[in-house]
Structures are given as structure tokens and as C-alpha cells.
Amino acid sequence: MISGYRDxxxxxxxxxxxxxxxxxxxxxxxQKGYTEIRxxxxxxxxxxxxxxx
Length: 53
Hints:
The chain is built from 1 helix and 3 strands.
């Protein structure tokens, strides 16, 4: 069990980038962890995996 909060930067870890959905579309977003960053480009969509919940 994990309890509490520890900043990832203390262990030199970074939150991963993901795409919002499997299929590329105008409303597909680039995410960093749970945070939506901006609309994703076609190249980024091919580069990153889909964020699964």
C-alpha cells in the first residue's frame, strides 16, 4: 500500500506524456500524467501511447 505524497522530482522522475484517445482527431489532447497540455499533433499521436484508466 502506498500512502502519502512524495514529489517525483526528489527521485529524478518525470511524469510521462500520453495521448488522450486511441484514434487521432481534432479533439485529441496531449497529456502529461492526468493534466491535459494542448491539442496533440499527428507526429506526437504516433509517438505516445494512450492514457488508460
